[in-house]
Write a sequence for this structure.
């Protein structure tokens, strides 16, 4: 067996513990009244309606518009896209064509303190109307929260000559683009234009070569690039000093700006949770107790492999928490529901099973008379395919649940949106947990076991589950 260097155990263990601590508690800084998130923790998780409750809202076309069935379905699809872009998977959305209404239910935001449904509704109903205009004349100037200049209300030729507007945009997605001058990568919004928008933009960029085309979001100018070439491919971009989250949210608002009619909220109310946060706290305490009991059992029965398995399980859960919370600040948290918690519990059981298989195979090889190095090598080798077979079948099931029951799929019309969200949540956490098991329970645990076997004081068969002989 190829020896693994002794420090590897400590390096891997420290990395696992660091991931566990940061994924649970996050990393934040406070600048006056502003809290800046560097790494998200459990407190940033967006809990589902069943755990924390949420909002129910009824939207109707504004200004007495008599919407067609097709327009209602289009508006529903855009609201659903807004949900998905924010990783809100625990939602329900229906259309009432007879009364021209769209009914939506969705959970509170993470860290919500006021629980004001009217404010929460703005998260999904707010739209931003993008316009591309000639020149950059504006009525007033102020500064934003970062001290950057803010240009407001177009005037003169800029107000009169609109090149593109919301209905010319087919798609808006956040991207990273390299600055041609500095070479620095920055966040931007990539726009795909309609056929009519492509023709208008090609004509304008040819006519205004060397001049400014300003980009406005409602009445605020957010960018004012100089035209350097004729653009005929129907693609444009909005650049500025965006963070990843700002670019993502702005792209979602622009996409929402393509609504076939303006929406107004005709009714809203809060939705009470079926489980509640106190029950969640009780589940968390039960989970910690279960982890302690499992850890004691593993250490008593399998000694060093059991001790290593504890680190592997902690690392696996840390990966799951990180994937759910939106570990890095540029990403939204995943909506955690009760079925999602069930997926985490099941994946932890799979992780325990993987570590027991490896430890048992090592123990069997030691009891058959092999040397310590030979038993570790053979035990890890013989257990690998058993673990892979079991995990791959679960991976396939999880992927099917995500693919078939994810947002906007064909079975949503059969089973309903609420069922879809619940099953999707279960599949997501199960998938992430099994991937975490591959990383921690298969790769990292083997490294740590082989590293510990290099210490002279630990090179005793009974410390790896064998007999005392």
């Amino acid at each position: 067996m190829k020896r693994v260097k002794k420090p590897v155990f400590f390096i891997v263990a420290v990395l696992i513990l660091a991931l566990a601590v940061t994924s649970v508690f996050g990393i934040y800084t406070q600048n006056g009244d502003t809290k800046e998130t560097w790494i998200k923790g459990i407190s940033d998780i967006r809990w589902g309606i069943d755990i924390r409750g949420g909002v129910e809202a009824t939207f109707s076309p504004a200004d007495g518009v008599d919407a067609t069935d097709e327009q209602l379905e289009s508006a529903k699809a855009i609201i659903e896209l807004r949900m998905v872009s924010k990783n809100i998977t625990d939602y329900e959305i229906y259309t009432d064509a007879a009364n021209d209404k769209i009914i939506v239910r969705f959970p509170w935001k993470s860290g919500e303190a006021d629980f004001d449904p009217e404010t929460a509704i703005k998260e999904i109903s707010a739209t931003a109307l993008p316009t591309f205009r000639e020149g950059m004349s504006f009525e007033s100037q102020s500064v934003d929260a970062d001290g950057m200049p803010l240009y407001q209300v177009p005037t003169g030729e800029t107000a009169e000559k609109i090149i593109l507007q919301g209905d010319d945009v087919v798609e808006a997605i956040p991207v990273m683009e390299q600055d041609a001058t500095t070479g620095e990568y920055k966040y931007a919004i990539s726009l795909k234009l309609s056929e009519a928008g492509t023709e208008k933009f090609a004509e304008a960029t040819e006519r205004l070569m060397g001049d400014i085309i300003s980009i406005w979001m409602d009445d605020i100018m957010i960018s004012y690039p100089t035209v350097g070439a004729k653009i005929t491919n129907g693609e444009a971009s909005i650049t500025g000093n965006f963070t990843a989250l700002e670019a993502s949210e702005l792209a979602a608002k622009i996409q929402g700006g393509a609504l076939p009619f303006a929406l107004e909220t005709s009714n809203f109310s809060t939705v009470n949770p079926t489980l509640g946060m106190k029950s969640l706290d009780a589940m968390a305490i039960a989970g910690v107790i279960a982890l302690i009991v499992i850890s004691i059992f593993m250490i008593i029965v399998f000694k060093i492999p059991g001790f290593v398995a504890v680190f592997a399980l902690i690392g696996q859960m840390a990966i799951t928490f990180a994937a759910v919370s939106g570990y890095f600040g540029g990403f939204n948290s995943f909506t955690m529901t009760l079925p999602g918690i069930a997926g985490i519990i099941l994946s932890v059981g799979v992780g325990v099973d993987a570590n027991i298989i490896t430890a048992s195979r090592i123990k069997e090889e030691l009891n058959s008379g092999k040397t310590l190095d030979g038993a570790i090598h053979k035990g890890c080798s013989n257990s690998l395919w058993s673990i892979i077979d079991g995990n791959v079948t679960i991976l396939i099931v999880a992927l099917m649940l995500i693919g078939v029951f994810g947002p906007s799929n064909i079975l949503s019309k059969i089973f309903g949106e609420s069922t879809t969200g619940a099953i999707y949540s279960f599949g997501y956490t199960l998938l992430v947990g099994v991937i975490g098991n591959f990383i921690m329970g298969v790769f990292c645990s083997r490294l740590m076991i082989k590293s510990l076997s290099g210490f002279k004081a630990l090179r005793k068969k009974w410390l790896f589950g064998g007999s005392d002989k």
Observations:
- The radius of gyration is 28 Å.
- The chain has a mean pLDDT of 82.
- The chain has three domains: 7-42+274-464, 54-126+266-271, 130-257.
